[in-house]
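Proteins fold reproducibly. Take a tokenised chain:

. . .
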Amino acid sequence: MRARSEQVMWREIDGQVVILDLRSSSYLRSNGTGARLWERLQTECQHDDLVDVLVSSYQVDPEVAASDVDAFLATLREGDLLER
């Protein structure tokens, strides 16, 4: 999986990421955790890669990291921000 790049602009601002979907004229703002995941999603990756990013960056339990990844991915899917 990876983030959709067509008609999507994003910037990191003060540790957060702001994602603008030009196709739907909507935006998403995420905290630092989401910013780390979004950065990783700029290249092809798997769910476990994203979990590893959170575990290594924030020293959280893998189950907690997996739950956070699932929630973030669900938000991205709702906004059609992932490539199919």
